Amino acid sequence: GENVGLHLPTLSVQEGDNSIINCAYSNSASDYFIWYKQESGKGPQFIIDIRSNMDKRQGQRVTVLLNKTVKHLSLQIAATQPGDSAVYFCAENTDKLIFGTGTRLQVFP
Amino acid sequence: DTEVTQTPKHLVMGMTNKKSLKCEQHMGHRAMYWYKQKAKKPPELMFVYSYEKLSINESVPSRFSPECPNSSLLNLHLHALQPEDSALYLCASSQARGRDEAFFGQGTRLTVV
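^ inputs. structure came back:
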């Protein structure tokens, strides 16, 4: 069945450093993934997506990497800022949008 | 306009009450979703509507009743809820089911007393 999970529940980084949030999935048929950011008291906000015909996609300060061989994807945030503090979810959207367990990113000065 | 609007933002209801949550989008999206999110947990899918028809019900108890009056509106009717139903209820929409990014509203914080 579908299983989208994350390796680390909390990630603490210093302001200005790069952050890497990891996510594993189990359904080898999954072909579309989305990263969401959720701040306290708000709904999930789309960050970046990637389809299985790609292994890398870049946005503004964010990069998503997809490794289909090991069923793993990661979100890299460059020059992490205090405003990046939130919970980050990877989600699989093949037939329906299913969320992983989430990682809390804490940015300290 | 990439906004999904949910009302009310907060709702407190008794276990014998009947209430409704509302969701609206004007992006022309044909898929709309209801999710339930408990504290420190990911959103859990409840219902999916595609072209105004219910296409997925994730075994949700009948005390939750969805309705899609038109392509822009999605309602969730609540009746005889339990305290454990207290959660953040999120609405989302996408151009089509399962193939595109979904945009989320800010949610309705529901407390059942």
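Chain A touches chain B through 21 residues (CB under 8 Å). The longest strand of chain A covers residues 86-93.
thumbs up if we can close this ticket
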